[in-house]
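Dear Dr. H.,

I hope your travels went smoothly. While you were away I took the liberty of generating a structure for the chain from your last submission, since the lab meeting agenda had it listed for discussion. I wanted you to have the full record in hand beforehand rather than looking at slides cold. The sequence, exactly as received, is reproduced here:
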Amino acid sequence: MPALSPTMSQGNIAKWKKKEGDKIEVGDILCEIETDKATVEFESLEEGFLAKILIPEGSKDVPVGQPIAITVEDADDIQNLPANVMGGSEVKEDIPPQQNVKKEDGVQDTSSVGINTSELPPHILIEMPALSPTMSQGNIAKWKKKEGDKIEVGDVICEIETDKATVEFECLEEGYLARILAPEGSKDIAVGQAIAVTVEDAADLEVVKNAVFSGSAVKEEKPIHQDTRDATRSEKTSVKRISPAAKLLITEHGLDTSSLKASGAHGTLLKGDVLAAIKSGLGSTIVSSKEKTAPSAQVHPKTSAPASTESRSSKQTDSFEDFPNSQIRKVIATRLLESKQNIPHLYLSSDVILDPLLSLRKDLKERHNVKVSVNDIVIKAVAVALRNVPEANAYWDAEKGEVFLCDSVDISIAVATEKGLMTPIVRNADQKTISAISSEVKELAEKARAGKLKPNEFQGGTFSISNLGMFPVDHFCAIINPPQASILAVGRGNKVVEPVIGSDGIERPAVVTKMNLTLSADHRVFDGKVGGSFLSALCSNFSEIRRLLL
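The corresponding predicted structure, in token form, is as follows:
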């Protein structure tokens, strides 16, 4: 049972989305969990098969940390599960003592962060919260409170960089911030890991400070404890299987599987095992040892003499800079790769004459002092086209294998920020005026660049627009942002000469401004007819632009 909110200590299984024996992919929804805040979809972080549901649908008050299901990597292993595995209690007996964390008398066990609970007064351990459904770790961007500060309910204590945005973390209890365990700038803190300690009484501040080790002390003690446990485990177990996620990490960091300790069932090496090894410095040790031993082992195939190391030394002298990815960029990379791999992209392109739009924009500014951008009018034109072709305002329901039509037209706008691409949403765009859309887009773009978007301002959306018209980009094909089924790529306007029929009915050459629109659509939702109908309606909106004012 995961901790899906900062104050969650137990949850209810509202509904299982998978049944025993089902294949599970990374990101699949396993079940719906009713927390103390809302009903949240619980995503799988590993692929495999759902072997056994330990906590049935409708179960109430399941403690955080209690096993709710068992998955296996190979479908053949389902039948090999012990017959006595019937529920959470049986599984709990197999959990090592170090992992079976108990909470008694309302005081949380804080041994993982170097706190002696026997010496602590009444306190609350603040853990890294799951601020989005896909968040598994976060970064401490900034502490808004400092140690010793009084905290009221609703006070923002820190800013946390999640896999979606930088979010303000509000305190749900009043008290005093006794100790900050994860300093400002800390990276990749796992959800559930302690980041601070609060107390009710200001007189208890010094007691907690003396009981909490410094960050360096904690880091130094953890490897010692793990080495002892790993040494014992290595005598009993060996790596027999490797999970897919673990394989990727091993390949990426060049690790030797024989030096890794498997904690999974039947000797399965898990992603967490590899991450623990990397954090303890095992990866760098292996790489450096290979570099030291490789020159003596290299022999030229013809002369049987040691190979020259000139090429290696030249590579080592090449200068480079590691550019760390933000949480947002990591998620974007993963989601877009999944999109190109799993979504059959259909591309449809058309050119529209931009002069009526430019004329409307000029009139709005001169006659009504209303300043709007080309993109604001494009948003309105797309929204009206989606309203007129509702089959295009839809997404693919992978679980049911069918198209789901959306009730509202919510347009996601691609905004470039320093931390990555964000897509704030203009909701019900078909019902708003162009000036209202313009004001909302400016406000959302400022929030996105400042990292201040709220989850409801960027989660959802039924259609995306990516506009590179401000750059010398004539046309491009955008990648669909799942779970949406379509995205429109907008290029820049170019002046071209082409025949135009005048008011007298005679065709003459004229200079017009043309703009390319390219639709990337999920072919499971859009067939040629739906895509063609949408582009036709959109082009009509550009040719008769003033009807958007109705």
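Two observations you may find useful: The domain at 10-77 is CATH 2.40.50.100 (OB fold (Dihydrolipoamide Acetyltransferase, E2P)). Residues 223 and 281 are 10 Å apart (CA to CA).

With kind regards,
E. W.
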